[in-house]
Design goal:
Helix 1 packs across helix 3, helix 10 crosses helix 11 and helix 11 packs across helix 13. 46% of the residues are buried. By secondary structure, the protein is of the alpha/beta class. It contains 14 helices and 14 strands. The strands form two sheets. An eight-stranded mixed sheet has the order 5-4-3-2-1-6-8-7, sandwiched between helices. Strands 11-10-9-12-14-13 form a six-stranded mixed sheet, sandwiched between helices. It folds into two domains: 147 residues, ATPase, nucleotide binding domain (Nucleotidyltransferase, domain 5, 2-Layer Sandwich); 189 residues, Nucleotidyltransferase, domain 5. It starts with a strand and ends with a helix. The structure holds adenosine-5'-diphosphate (ADP). The site of adenosine-5'-diphosphate has 13 residues, from helix 10 and helix 12.
Amino acid sequence: MKILVINCGSSSLKYQVLNMEDHSLLCKGLVERIAADGSVLTHTKIGLDEKKKVEAPMADHTAAISYVLEALVDPKFGVVASMDEIGAVGHRVLHGGEAFTASTLVTPEVEAAIEDCIPLGPLHNPANLMGIRACQGLMPNTPQVAVFDTAFHQSMPAESFIYPLPYEYYEKYHVRRYGFHGTSHRYITLRAAAMLGKKPEETSIISCHLGNGSSLCAVKNGKCYDTSMGLTPLEGLEMGTRCGDIDPAAVPFIAEREGLSFKDMDTIMNKKSGLLGVSGVSGDARDVEEAANAGNYRAQLALDIFTHRVKHYIGAYIAEMNGVDAIVFTAGIGENSITSRENICRDMEALGIKIDPEKNKVRGRECVISADDSPVKILLIPTNEELMIAMDTYDIVTGK
Ligand code: ADP
Protein backbone atom coordinates (compact mmCIF):
# COMPACT_ATOMS: atom_id res chain seq x y z
CA MET A 1 0.00 0.00 0.00
CA LYS A 2 1.14 3.56 -0.76
CA ILE A 3 0.33 6.28 1.76
CA LEU A 4 0.26 10.03 1.28
CA VAL A 5 1.40 11.98 4.35
CA ILE A 6 0.37 15.61 4.61
CA ASN A 7 1.59 18.28 7.01
CA CYS A 8 -0.37 21.49 6.51
CA GLY A 9 0.70 24.86 7.84
CA SER A 10 -1.32 28.03 7.47
CA SER A 11 0.36 29.07 4.21
CA SER A 12 2.45 26.04 3.36
CA LEU A 13 2.12 22.31 3.03
CA LYS A 14 4.64 19.46 3.03
CA TYR A 15 3.90 16.01 1.71
CA GLN A 16 5.46 12.61 1.11
CA VAL A 17 4.35 9.34 -0.45
CA LEU A 18 5.69 6.19 1.20
CA ASN A 19 5.54 2.60 0.06
CA MET A 20 4.49 0.58 3.10
CA GLU A 21 5.87 -2.70 1.73
CA ASP A 22 9.41 -1.59 2.51
CA HIS A 23 8.79 1.82 4.19
CA SER A 24 10.61 3.51 1.30
CA LEU A 25 10.07 7.13 0.40
CA LEU A 26 8.80 7.55 -3.18
CA CYS A 27 8.44 11.31 -3.48
CA LYS A 28 8.20 14.44 -1.38
CA GLY A 29 7.28 18.04 -1.91
CA LEU A 30 6.46 21.42 -0.54
CA VAL A 31 3.83 24.02 -1.44
CA GLU A 32 4.60 27.54 -0.30
CA ARG A 33 2.66 30.80 -0.27
CA ILE A 34 -0.80 29.22 -0.35
CA ALA A 35 -3.49 31.92 -0.57
CA ALA A 36 -0.84 34.54 -1.35
CA ASP A 37 0.88 35.90 -4.42
CA GLY A 38 3.53 33.62 -5.88
CA SER A 39 2.18 30.19 -4.80
CA VAL A 40 4.69 27.52 -5.75
CA LEU A 41 4.89 23.73 -5.55
CA THR A 42 8.26 21.97 -5.59
CA HIS A 43 8.06 18.21 -6.09
CA THR A 44 10.91 15.70 -5.90
CA LYS A 45 10.65 12.13 -7.10
CA ILE A 46 13.24 10.03 -5.27
CA GLY A 47 15.95 8.97 -7.71
CA LEU A 48 15.36 11.86 -10.12
CA ASP A 49 17.67 14.87 -9.85
CA GLU A 50 15.30 17.14 -11.76
CA LYS A 51 12.49 18.65 -9.69
CA LYS A 52 8.99 19.54 -10.84
CA LYS A 53 8.06 23.13 -10.07
CA VAL A 54 4.53 24.50 -10.45
CA GLU A 55 4.02 28.24 -10.18
CA ALA A 56 0.29 28.92 -10.35
CA PRO A 57 -2.32 30.75 -8.29
CA MET A 58 -3.39 28.54 -5.34
CA ALA A 59 -6.16 30.35 -3.52
CA ASP A 60 -6.55 27.78 -0.76
CA HIS A 61 -5.40 24.37 0.51
CA THR A 62 -7.80 22.55 -1.83
CA ALA A 63 -6.15 24.22 -4.84
CA ALA A 64 -2.70 23.40 -3.45
CA ILE A 65 -3.59 19.76 -2.82
CA SER A 66 -5.10 19.39 -6.30
CA TYR A 67 -1.70 20.38 -7.72
CA VAL A 68 -0.04 17.87 -5.37
CA LEU A 69 -2.33 15.10 -6.67
CA GLU A 70 -1.50 16.11 -10.25
CA ALA A 71 2.20 15.80 -9.46
CA LEU A 72 1.66 12.32 -7.96
CA VAL A 73 0.25 10.98 -11.26
CA ASP A 74 2.55 13.00 -13.55
CA PRO A 75 3.99 10.68 -16.24
CA LYS A 76 7.57 11.76 -15.48
CA PHE A 77 7.56 12.87 -11.84
CA GLY A 78 4.64 10.82 -10.54
CA VAL A 79 4.76 7.74 -8.31
CA VAL A 80 1.31 6.22 -9.00
CA ALA A 81 -0.59 5.50 -12.22
CA SER A 82 -3.83 6.70 -10.65
CA MET A 83 -4.91 8.05 -7.27
CA ASP A 84 -6.63 4.70 -6.57
CA GLU A 85 -3.16 3.41 -5.69
CA ILE A 86 -3.03 5.73 -2.67
CA GLY A 87 -4.54 3.57 0.08
CA ALA A 88 -4.91 6.30 2.70
CA VAL A 89 -3.83 9.79 3.71
CA GLY A 90 -2.14 10.47 7.06
CA HIS A 91 -2.41 14.03 8.35
CA ARG A 92 -0.18 15.61 10.96
CA VAL A 93 -2.42 17.45 13.41
CA LEU A 94 -0.81 19.68 16.01
CA HIS A 95 -3.20 19.61 18.91
CA GLY A 96 -5.44 16.81 20.05
CA GLY A 97 -6.03 18.28 23.51
CA GLU A 98 -7.12 15.63 26.00
CA ALA A 99 -9.43 14.04 23.43
CA PHE A 100 -6.82 11.99 21.58
CA THR A 101 -4.36 9.57 23.12
CA ALA A 102 -3.54 7.93 19.78
CA SER A 103 -3.90 8.38 16.03
CA THR A 104 -7.40 7.94 14.67
CA LEU A 105 -9.47 7.54 11.53
CA VAL A 106 -11.06 10.88 10.61
CA THR A 107 -14.82 10.87 11.14
CA PRO A 108 -17.19 13.84 11.52
CA GLU A 109 -16.82 13.47 15.33
CA VAL A 110 -13.03 13.54 15.05
CA GLU A 111 -13.19 16.65 12.87
CA ALA A 112 -15.40 18.31 15.47
CA ALA A 113 -12.94 17.39 18.23
CA ILE A 114 -10.01 18.82 16.23
CA GLU A 115 -12.08 21.97 15.81
CA ASP A 116 -12.67 22.09 19.56
CA CYS A 117 -8.89 22.13 20.04
CA ILE A 118 -8.44 25.30 17.91
CA PRO A 119 -8.12 27.56 21.00
CA LEU A 120 -5.13 25.40 22.05
CA GLY A 121 -3.55 25.33 18.58
CA PRO A 122 -4.85 28.52 16.95
CA LEU A 123 -2.26 28.65 14.16
CA HIS A 124 -1.98 24.99 13.24
CA ASN A 125 -5.28 23.21 13.89
CA PRO A 126 -7.29 25.32 11.39
CA ALA A 127 -4.65 24.61 8.71
CA ASN A 128 -4.60 20.90 9.60
CA LEU A 129 -8.39 20.80 9.24
CA MET A 130 -8.19 22.59 5.89
CA GLY A 131 -5.83 19.87 4.69
CA ILE A 132 -8.15 17.10 5.88
CA ARG A 133 -11.19 18.70 4.28
CA ALA A 134 -9.37 19.39 1.01
CA CYS A 135 -8.35 15.72 0.77
CA GLN A 136 -11.87 14.57 1.62
CA GLY A 137 -13.19 16.71 -1.23
CA LEU A 138 -10.58 15.58 -3.74
CA MET A 139 -10.33 11.92 -2.65
CA PRO A 140 -13.75 11.12 -1.17
CA ASN A 141 -13.21 7.34 -1.13
CA THR A 142 -9.77 7.36 0.49
CA PRO A 143 -9.59 7.00 4.28
CA GLN A 144 -7.99 9.88 6.18
CA VAL A 145 -6.13 9.43 9.44
CA ALA A 146 -5.19 12.13 11.96
CA VAL A 147 -1.88 11.78 13.84
CA PHE A 148 -1.51 14.21 16.74
CA ASP A 149 1.69 15.86 17.97
CA THR A 150 0.28 15.80 21.49
CA ALA A 151 -1.07 12.21 21.64
CA PHE A 152 2.10 10.44 22.86
CA HIS A 153 2.26 12.75 25.87
CA GLN A 154 -1.23 11.91 27.12
CA SER A 155 0.26 9.13 29.27
CA MET A 156 1.93 11.72 31.57
CA PRO A 157 0.87 11.50 35.22
CA ALA A 158 -1.02 14.51 36.60
CA GLU A 159 1.99 15.69 38.58
CA SER A 160 3.84 16.10 35.27
CA PHE A 161 1.07 17.93 33.45
CA ILE A 162 -0.82 20.07 35.98
CA TYR A 163 0.61 23.57 36.49
CA PRO A 164 0.53 24.80 40.06
CA LEU A 165 -1.95 27.55 39.17
CA PRO A 166 -5.46 27.75 40.61
CA TYR A 167 -6.97 24.40 39.58
CA GLU A 168 -10.03 26.12 38.11
CA TYR A 169 -8.01 27.23 35.04
CA TYR A 170 -7.35 23.61 34.20
CA GLU A 171 -11.05 22.84 34.63
CA LYS A 172 -12.32 25.93 32.81
CA TYR A 173 -9.78 26.38 30.02
CA HIS A 174 -7.82 23.10 29.91
CA VAL A 175 -4.63 24.97 30.85
CA ARG A 176 -2.06 22.19 31.42
CA ARG A 177 1.11 20.78 29.90
CA TYR A 178 0.36 18.95 26.63
CA GLY A 179 3.78 18.60 25.02
CA PHE A 180 4.61 18.48 21.32
CA HIS A 181 6.90 16.59 18.91
CA GLY A 182 5.06 13.49 20.19
CA THR A 183 5.24 11.71 16.84
CA SER A 184 9.01 12.20 16.77
CA HIS A 185 9.49 11.13 20.40
CA ARG A 186 7.39 8.00 19.76
CA TYR A 187 9.40 7.11 16.65
CA ILE A 188 12.62 7.64 18.62
CA THR A 189 11.34 5.38 21.41
CA LEU A 190 10.57 2.56 18.97
CA ARG A 191 13.92 2.83 17.19
CA ALA A 192 15.85 3.17 20.46
CA ALA A 193 14.18 0.02 21.81
CA ALA A 194 15.12 -1.82 18.61
CA MET A 195 18.74 -0.61 18.85
CA LEU A 196 18.94 -1.61 22.51
CA GLY A 197 17.41 -5.01 21.74
CA LYS A 198 14.58 -4.40 24.22
CA LYS A 199 10.79 -4.29 24.05
CA PRO A 200 9.50 -0.69 23.90
CA GLU A 201 7.48 -1.28 27.07
CA GLU A 202 10.71 -2.16 28.88
CA THR A 203 12.69 0.79 27.52
CA SER A 204 13.32 4.03 29.40
CA ILE A 205 15.05 6.85 27.55
CA ILE A 206 15.38 10.59 27.34
CA SER A 207 14.58 11.63 23.79
CA CYS A 208 16.27 14.93 22.89
CA HIS A 209 14.56 16.45 19.84
CA LEU A 210 16.82 19.44 19.17
CA GLY A 211 15.88 21.48 16.10
CA ASN A 212 14.48 24.93 15.47
CA GLY A 213 11.90 23.92 18.02
CA SER A 214 13.36 21.68 20.71
CA SER A 215 11.88 19.44 23.36
CA LEU A 216 13.01 16.65 25.64
CA CYS A 217 10.80 13.73 26.52
CA ALA A 218 11.21 11.43 29.49
CA VAL A 219 10.04 8.01 28.30
CA LYS A 220 9.45 5.52 31.08
CA ASN A 221 8.81 1.94 30.02
CA GLY A 222 7.87 3.05 26.50
CA LYS A 223 5.45 5.76 27.60
CA CYS A 224 5.82 9.50 27.98
CA TYR A 225 6.35 10.37 31.63
CA ASP A 226 7.27 14.02 31.22
CA THR A 227 8.18 16.47 28.48
CA SER A 228 9.62 19.97 28.33
CA MET A 229 7.08 21.74 26.12
CA GLY A 230 3.86 22.75 27.79
CA LEU A 231 0.48 24.30 27.02
CA THR A 232 2.21 25.64 23.91
CA PRO A 233 5.56 24.84 22.24
CA LEU A 234 7.12 27.83 24.04
CA GLU A 235 7.99 26.15 27.33
CA GLY A 236 11.20 24.32 28.13
CA LEU A 237 14.52 24.59 26.31
CA GLU A 238 16.07 27.61 24.66
CA MET A 239 15.12 27.35 20.96
CA GLY A 240 15.95 29.14 17.72
CA THR A 241 13.70 32.10 18.44
CA ARG A 242 11.75 30.94 21.54
CA CYS A 243 12.84 31.67 25.09
CA GLY A 244 11.65 28.47 26.77
CA ASP A 245 11.46 28.61 30.58
CA ILE A 246 11.68 32.03 32.18
CA ASP A 247 10.29 33.46 35.38
CA PRO A 248 6.65 34.18 34.42
CA ALA A 249 6.90 37.41 36.41
CA ALA A 250 9.42 38.70 33.85
CA VAL A 251 6.52 39.06 31.39
CA PRO A 252 4.51 41.76 33.21
CA PHE A 253 7.80 43.31 34.43
CA ILE A 254 9.06 43.92 30.87
CA ALA A 255 5.61 44.70 29.43
CA GLU A 256 5.03 47.44 32.00
CA ARG A 257 8.36 49.14 31.35
CA GLU A 258 8.21 48.86 27.57
CA GLY A 259 4.49 49.59 27.25
CA LEU A 260 3.87 46.25 25.55
CA SER A 261 0.68 44.21 25.29
CA PHE A 262 0.33 40.46 26.05
CA LYS A 263 0.32 39.90 22.30
CA ASP A 264 3.58 41.86 21.89
CA MET A 265 5.17 39.84 24.68
CA ASP A 266 3.96 36.61 23.07
CA THR A 267 5.66 37.63 19.80
CA ILE A 268 8.87 38.59 21.61
CA MET A 269 9.00 35.27 23.48
CA ASN A 270 8.19 33.18 20.40
CA LYS A 271 9.93 35.04 17.59
CA LYS A 272 12.64 37.29 19.01
CA SER A 273 14.15 35.28 21.85
CA GLY A 274 16.18 32.11 22.15
CA LEU A 275 19.42 31.78 20.15
CA LEU A 276 18.40 34.83 18.12
CA GLY A 277 17.51 37.01 21.08
CA VAL A 278 20.65 36.25 23.07
CA SER A 279 23.19 36.18 20.21
CA GLY A 280 21.65 38.95 18.12
CA VAL A 281 23.08 36.98 15.19
CA SER A 282 20.53 34.39 14.07
CA GLY A 283 18.04 31.79 15.26
CA ASP A 284 19.82 29.15 13.18
CA ALA A 285 22.23 27.07 15.24
CA ARG A 286 24.75 26.81 12.40
CA ASP A 287 25.07 30.61 12.10
CA VAL A 288 25.35 30.95 15.86
CA GLU A 289 28.06 28.24 16.02
CA GLU A 290 29.95 30.02 13.25
CA ALA A 291 29.75 33.37 15.05
CA ALA A 292 30.80 31.76 18.34
CA ASN A 293 33.80 30.14 16.65
CA ALA A 294 34.75 33.58 15.33
CA GLY A 295 34.83 34.87 18.91
CA ASN A 296 31.36 36.43 19.29
CA TYR A 297 30.67 36.43 23.07
CA ARG A 298 26.88 36.56 22.86
CA ALA A 299 26.75 33.81 20.26
CA GLN A 300 28.81 31.58 22.57
CA LEU A 301 26.57 32.55 25.50
CA ALA A 302 23.44 31.62 23.50
CA LEU A 303 24.95 28.17 22.83
CA ASP A 304 26.07 27.78 26.45
CA ILE A 305 22.52 28.51 27.64
CA PHE A 306 21.21 25.90 25.20
CA THR A 307 23.66 23.28 26.51
CA HIS A 308 22.95 24.22 30.12
CA ARG A 309 19.20 23.80 29.71
CA VAL A 310 19.40 20.46 27.94
CA LYS A 311 21.66 19.21 30.76
CA HIS A 312 19.22 20.62 33.30
CA TYR A 313 16.34 18.61 31.87
CA ILE A 314 18.41 15.44 31.42
CA GLY A 315 19.31 15.59 35.11
CA ALA A 316 15.72 16.23 36.10
CA TYR A 317 14.38 13.37 34.01
CA ILE A 318 16.96 10.89 35.28
CA ALA A 319 15.86 11.84 38.80
CA GLU A 320 12.16 11.56 37.88
CA MET A 321 12.60 8.13 36.30
CA ASN A 322 15.27 6.75 38.66
CA GLY A 323 17.67 6.08 35.78
CA VAL A 324 17.42 5.49 32.04
CA ASP A 325 18.73 3.07 29.43
CA ALA A 326 19.73 5.74 26.93
CA ILE A 327 19.90 9.37 25.96
CA VAL A 328 18.90 9.84 22.32
CA PHE A 329 19.73 12.79 20.08
CA THR A 330 17.58 13.68 17.08
CA ALA A 331 16.39 16.52 14.75
CA GLY A 332 18.54 19.18 13.01
CA ILE A 333 20.88 20.03 15.90
CA GLY A 334 20.74 16.62 17.60
CA GLU A 335 21.54 14.77 14.38
CA ASN A 336 24.17 17.15 13.03
CA SER A 337 25.88 19.23 15.69
CA ILE A 338 28.82 17.24 16.96
CA THR A 339 29.82 20.04 19.35
CA SER A 340 26.32 20.37 20.84
CA ARG A 341 26.19 16.65 21.63
CA GLU A 342 29.69 16.73 23.09
CA ASN A 343 28.96 19.80 25.23
CA ILE A 344 25.67 18.40 26.51
CA CYS A 345 27.22 15.07 27.50
CA ARG A 346 30.39 16.56 28.99
CA ASP A 347 30.92 16.03 32.75
CA MET A 348 27.96 13.73 33.22
CA GLU A 349 29.87 10.63 34.28
CA ALA A 350 28.25 10.91 37.71
CA LEU A 351 24.94 10.15 35.98
CA GLY A 352 26.42 7.24 34.04
CA ILE A 353 26.65 9.22 30.80
CA LYS A 354 29.98 9.02 28.96
CA ILE A 355 30.27 10.01 25.32
CA ASP A 356 32.97 8.64 23.00
CA PRO A 357 34.37 11.71 21.21
CA GLU A 358 35.49 9.63 18.20
CA LYS A 359 32.19 7.78 17.77
CA ASN A 360 30.45 11.15 18.15
CA LYS A 361 32.07 12.45 14.95
CA VAL A 362 29.09 11.46 12.88
CA ARG A 363 26.02 13.11 11.37
CA GLY A 364 22.56 11.92 10.46
CA ARG A 365 22.73 8.14 10.82
CA GLU A 366 21.58 5.67 13.47
CA CYS A 367 24.48 4.76 15.73
CA VAL A 368 25.74 4.42 19.30
CA ILE A 369 28.02 7.31 20.34
CA SER A 370 28.63 6.45 24.00
CA ALA A 371 31.86 4.97 25.31
CA ASP A 372 31.82 1.17 25.62
CA ASP A 373 31.86 1.44 29.44
CA SER A 374 29.09 4.07 29.62
CA PRO A 375 26.26 2.64 31.79
CA VAL A 376 23.76 4.85 29.93
CA LYS A 377 23.93 4.43 26.14
CA ILE A 378 23.99 7.55 24.00
CA LEU A 379 22.26 7.07 20.64
CA LEU A 380 21.95 9.13 17.49
CA ILE A 381 18.70 8.43 15.66
CA PRO A 382 17.50 10.57 12.73
CA THR A 383 13.82 11.20 13.35
CA ASN A 384 11.22 10.32 10.74
CA GLU A 385 7.85 11.75 11.68
CA GLU A 386 6.42 11.11 8.22
CA LEU A 387 7.21 7.39 8.44
CA MET A 388 5.61 7.24 11.90
CA ILE A 389 2.48 8.96 10.52
CA ALA A 390 2.43 6.55 7.56
CA MET A 391 2.88 3.53 9.87
CA ASP A 392 -0.01 4.64 12.10
CA THR A 393 -2.16 5.34 9.04
CA TYR A 394 -1.38 1.91 7.59
CA ASP A 395 -2.14 0.14 10.87
CA ILE A 396 -5.44 1.97 11.28
CA VAL A 397 -6.75 1.42 7.74
CA THR A 398 -5.65 -2.23 7.66
CA GLY A 399 -6.97 -2.87 11.19
CA LYS A 400 -3.54 -4.02 12.47
P1 ADP B 1 12.58 22.18 12.57
O1 ADP B 1 12.26 22.36 14.02
O2 ADP B 1 12.31 23.38 11.74
O3 ADP B 1 12.09 20.87 11.98
P2 ADP B 1 15.22 21.01 12.20
O4 ADP B 1 15.01 19.75 12.96
O5 ADP B 1 15.35 20.93 10.73
O6 ADP B 1 14.17 22.11 12.59
O7 ADP B 1 16.54 21.71 12.81
C1 ADP B 1 17.00 22.93 12.33
C2 ADP B 1 18.19 23.34 13.19
O8 ADP B 1 19.24 22.37 13.02
C3 ADP B 1 18.77 24.68 12.79
O9 ADP B 1 19.04 25.44 13.94
C4 ADP B 1 20.06 24.29 12.11
O10 ADP B 1 21.04 25.28 12.24
C5 ADP B 1 20.44 23.05 12.88
N1 ADP B 1 21.45 22.30 12.13
C6 ADP B 1 21.33 21.66 10.96
N2 ADP B 1 22.52 21.16 10.56
C7 ADP B 1 23.43 21.52 11.50
C8 ADP B 1 24.83 21.33 11.68
N3 ADP B 1 25.55 20.66 10.79
N4 ADP B 1 25.41 21.85 12.78
C9 ADP B 1 24.69 22.53 13.69
N5 ADP B 1 23.38 22.75 13.58
C10 ADP B 1 22.75 22.24 12.50
